[in-house]
Amino acid sequence: DMLTKGFPKDFLWGGATAANQFEGGWNEGGKGISTTDMCLAGSRTIPKRLAKEIKEGVYYPSHNGIDFYHRYKEDIALFAEMGFKSFRMSIAWTRIYPTGEESEPNEEGLKFYDDVFDELQKYGIEPIVTISHYEYPYHLVEKFSCWKSREMIDYYMKFTETIFRRYKNKVKYWLTLNEINTVALATSGYIGAGILNGDEDEVMDMKVDPETLYQALHYMLVASAKAVTLGHEINPDFKIGSMEAYLTYYPYNCNPDDVLLAQKKDREVNLIAGDVQIRGSYPGFAYRFFEEKGYDIKMEEEDFEILKKGTVDFISISYYFSATMSTQEGLGEASGNMIVEGNVNPYLETSEWGWQSDPKGLRWTLNHIWDRYQIPIMVVENGLGATDKLEADGSVHDDYRIKYIRDHVIQMKEAIRDGVNLIAYTPWGCIDLISGSTGEMDKRYGFIYVDLDNQGNGSFDRYKKDSFYWYKKVIASNGEDL
Ligand code: BG6
């Protein structure tokens, strides 16, 4: 019987986090200063900002995060209570190499992740580890603007080799670089690639020109491919995946120009990185795109061989919304801090932060990816950022979040029935954490509420939201009881 009815038996249900948004302990255990440690909180309308120096009395959200560094046992016990089969996390580069330049790794940092992996193992939770999630040693920013320089590849490889060897028998699933393709979006030059644009203001502008960004993307793709090859040498059982923010673009209407524009966007933002990581070479449209834009992307002869050799074992994506593309002027712009350009889609609901939820778009996207690449897929980020209210009795009634996740689970099941080989689902911020784009605490995604506000005040106590009990039921029934 070739017909797939629902989620496979060994489906990896879980949740996702990133070190820089939840660990805290920013200067403990020998940790160095990371790119995120320099960031100030933004707000619903202001993206998070970059400070020139760290000052007393100023709130930097990553410094305490939600204090996973000290509370990991309690948090992992809560994940286990929900029935997690997997847990996505990242390793803070600066815990292992505080400035990036040391020749020996920091043992205390390595030990911390040993403890975390051992704790997960106790409950049979499979770690899915992002090698680098929007975080680099700040020292390397000052030295050569991280991925602006080819040298960064060697620093990344040193870090990667250290953690591959150390956790060889504890971690099987690895993601090379978080949302690698978002580097191409001007707004994430600093966050995604650690590039400074030379601005000397107290609060620095994080925008970087696109040619520099596509060059950075190339270096990152080379580094990712090298990591895949090395990882397979160290442990042939490693499964090493790509990680892309899947930004799904629809044509605004049936005007063929809109259809072509949406396709072009999909290629320039998503497929360009995906094709290199999965197929091992740049697609034709990439060269045309570079040429038409006048970008001179420097590639060494050896790069082509490296890319060809280091193709990934699986694909992982984040998926939050879809966007529409139109050649017509005067349509409503997508609002809030929606990180992609596009027009408002009148058929979709919009979150408090202006993100347009589109569960069916996830089914479309998974089919789109599967049809192109035919290798296993993980959805390693998805969720609804919303304001929650902690009630006096410690409950949080987040029916809006349950609805969002339920609708996406339904569509993932549809995709599986369409024949897509989906192997994992780890919703973003399974425990409330600091927002990546705004640095706020108020933009919550979790099944677990953390008592902490936008200024960094609170008890850090954890509370189970209604979605906690709901998700537990979903996992227990393998996606049947929704
Ligand atoms: C992804 C990032 O882009 O989206 C995460 O990988 C981020 O780091 C997540 O937190 C959600 O975005 P935000 O801005 O709502 O936190």
Automatic annotation (TrEMBL):
Protein species of origin: Breznakia pachnodae
Full protein name: 6-phospho-beta-glucosidase
Top-level taxon of the source organism: Bacteria
GO molecular function terms attached to this record: 6-phospho-beta-glucosidase activity
Xref: Gene3D superfamilies: Glycosidases
Keywords: Glycosidase, Hydrolase
Pfam families: Glyco_hydro_1
Keyword Plastid: no
Enzyme Commission designation: 3.2.1.86
Sequence similarity: Belongs to the glycosyl hydrolase 1 family.
